[in-house]
Amino acid sequence: MEQNEILKVNGLTVDFATEQGTVHAVRDISFAVREGEILGVVGESGSGKSVSMYSVMGLLADNGTVTAEKIEFDGQSINASDYDGKRSYEKTMQSVRGNTMSMIFQDPMTFLNPTITIGKQLTEPILNHTKLTKGQARARAVELMTLVGIPSPETRLDQYPFEFSGGMRQRIIIAMALAMSPKLIIADEPTTALDVTIQAQVLDLIKELSKKMGSAVIMITHDLGVVASLCDRINIMYGGKIVETGTDKEIFYTPNHPYTKGLLACIKNPEENDKDLVPIPGSPPDLLKPPAGCPFVDRCESAMKICKLKMPPETVFSDTHKSACWLNDARAEKGVNAHAR
Amino acid sequence: MENQFDKKLQDIEADDALFEKLEDSEKDSEFIAVEAKTYFQDAWKNFKKNKLATIGLIFICLMLLLAVFGPIFSPYTYDQQDLTSRNALPSLQHPFGTDKFGRDIFVRVMYGARISLSVGFASAFINLIIGVVYGGFCGYFGGKLDMVLMRLVEIIYSVPTLLYVILVMLIFGSNIFSVLLAICISGWVGMARQVRAQVMSLKEQEYALAAKVMGAGDSRILFKHLVVNSIGPIIVTTTHMVPSAIFTESFLAFVGIGISIPQASWGTMASEARGLIMNQPIQMVWPVLAICLTILSLNFIGDGLNEALDPRKRV
Amino acid sequence: MPANIVKDEVVLKVDHLKTYFDATKGLFAKKQTVKAVDDVSFEIYKGETFGLVGESGCGKSTLGRTIVKIYEPTAGSIEINGRDIAGIKGDELKSFRKDIQYIFQDPYASLDPRMTVGEIIKEPMKIHGIYKTEEEMDARVSQLLRTVGLKPDHIRRYPHEFSGGQRQRISIARTLALDPKFIICDEPISALDVSIQAQIINLLEQIQRELDISYLFIAHDLSMVKHISHRIAVMYLGQIVELGESHEVYTNPMHPYSQALLSAVPVPDPVKGKEKERIMLQGELPSPIDPPSGCPFRTRCPYAMERCAGERPQMKMYGSRQVACFKVEEENS
Hints:
- The structure holds 3 protein chains of 3 kinds.
- Helices cover 34% and strands 23% of the residues of chain A.
- Chain A is α/β, with parallel strands linked by helices.
- Chain A folds into 2 domains: 236 residues, P-loop containing nucleotide triphosphate hydrolases (Rossmann fold, 3-Layer(aba) Sandwich); 71 residues, no CATH class.
- Chain A is globular and about 70 Å long.
- Chain B contains 12 helices and no strands.
- By secondary structure, chain C is α/β, with parallel strands linked by helices.
- In chain C, the strands form 2 sheets. An 8-stranded mixed sheet of chain C has the order 6-7-8-3-9-10-12-11, sandwiched between helices.
- In chain C, strand 4 and strand 5 form a beta hairpin.
- In chain C, helix 3 runs parallel beside helix 5 and helix 4 packs across helix 5.
- Classes of the chains: A alpha/beta, B mainly alpha, C alpha/beta.
- Chains A and C meet through helix 8, helix 9, helix 10 and helix 11 of A and helix 5, helix 6, helix 7, helix 9 and helix 10 of C.
């Protein structure tokens, strides 16, 4: 499984300096993305799911510091500490971003410049990263617009962002992300701002295009319905840590971590008959002072004393399925054994 | 790579008792790590970081203390003439020297501070009240009423201040109240516009709608919610109004309109010293220095507050 | 499932309600009207949760806001406990405001950032002068905070120190301060995390059981609406196109728009979710300034007929269901 990993991240930690102190947004996480797969990253707001991806792309705000043992993309290190100085790192990242690695943002309106035509915004990355002429770049833009299903692309290229609806704008963002046939697309909640019917269209589009172009996709979302209908593999993040990782079926059918189980218990499957919602009590941990042990301890039904003191080790269930929880420790059985497995 | 703490944990880990269930009382899932801090505590903390603004604030406080208590503890009064020591240079008896009538300049500067500062603060206060009420009213109710009232504001604003001053002086004579009135006639316009813009954008906020749904009356929504939430820009505008009023007063006094002699304001003192500028230039320095430092300090405070109170400028 | 409904006790009755906005641009431009809510009628019973679903721009929030008179209705009536409040103002309206409260979508914007939690919850009590002393109010605030699962010592904190879910609970505590009979929940969970959404939904259900409150639950998250609602109405372009028992509408939507909307809901199941057939809608939501003639959905409807352009379909009863569609009409005649 090592052979075709497109992105490999080891020991990634992200801190933010704020007025109140240091926020430990991401704490020592490791993950990998394989060629052509769709990886879902699920977590609450503040769990570090977006921050970890932004830091991989080198797009963090100035008050954030990233440390990692290894960030490798397409066989090349993109870990800032492997470069001497900010400039050489930035130079590499500029050749990577929008080229072999691209991003789809949550709010298309903040990403598109309202005073420039769609055509210009779409051809710009093509002109930057290739030697194509303006005319060829325009032809490519028309091709992309057709690909994402925008009718009469030639005329629409000369229009401004405000002349498009929300769903259409998101399609343009996707077209921009696809402009260079990237090997990896990072999609940060691309459908949260959209209505369900449009969301369905956009998800189908991402799925279809990823298959067609062989691009891997990292799908950052909080919506388990979206994850289930799109992703091959899922990382569950909580309190700056990856608490469980597995294939879609492993996560949905045999979840191990109490947080994953909790998440599944508090969503509704509209096709099933009524079951009571079992919410997870409390609120996520404040990452100004993250707990020493498991981040989920204060909301966990079966928490033990050890959970408050030490981060649980990872238990491996299969090649793909791993979870970090003390309940998997043999001694948990010997304790009060109050929890039901 | 295990540190001592981890080693210790390793030992504890062997303890099976740790695998007992954690009691609910030991969990704190509604924990809030951020310290409870009010808006003004936060702003004060930010303000203190700005050195120039802090120095300005200390200077203004000192000036206020001198203005209020200085003349009381001084052996001289502002109009007490001592013809034996006219145009004296600074000395121990007269720290800033004396003027052509032998009056102590130090006490006159402190007395001038009373007038200049009270004109500055009083006019800022009056402008604040009129501006907030007028602007709040226009912004909140909007529509045709707003259009008419704002055109009125533009008319008031389009007449030069000096014209108002001359008119007021003609009618009410030269005294401190006329000066105040003249400054205030058009001074509130800026505040009114500022507040109107703030209120207009805030009134669509959900907390304003929430108050409406609760049954809150218009004045409650306007003053308890909208104006309170515009307090940052209001304070900043007010602090910038004080120096401009002080400057106007000094300027008027200098050209001979305003308060009458022997009362001392910084402007009149500068005006009197003008005649002696060739022989006794030092007499000119004191009032001008007072005006400059005060206005500078107030501007620093204004900028400091602007930064401290503006949420966009914070992380 | 939530509490018992008293079917013969109507709490809210909305009849042919219309809310139009003036959208004329400039002084001399042609007069334009946005028909945000266009002829809507329904009633809500005591202890019932009435779900209102539709996509953004369909007028569901405008409808909610018109009912609490943030917007003035253009025509029609809003009856609360048998009394029409569409035209009343001032003190008369104020006394009705006690009975009918509103929970806003964005818990970050709906709490005044300059007030402490205590002041926020006390505000409605002060406005209506329910309690005489500060002590009585403090006691009630502590009780309300406990009801919504927060600690009484949070009373002196400011909203920005809380997380989204906690803030939404504060705003629920505020709406409960007046013991309302009816609460409009305007997408109260859409800005919250999944694990927190369930908390809020359960809290709302628990409050309903204890206090016999009716809800109008506005949302675009269809799975949650189905869970909490007894009946739901589907809105499209300012009109209700289908209304019925929530379970029935979900399992067997009759209006073509309801069918498309429900098929688009992602299923949280990796096998079914990936296999699910979706009805893809063509085109885009028409502008409410210039809505299509006849049936508002006809421009995107896969079954549109000539008749749909000519006249507007009326709501007709099919069992316990009401649908406004000529195709359904023909199939059932």
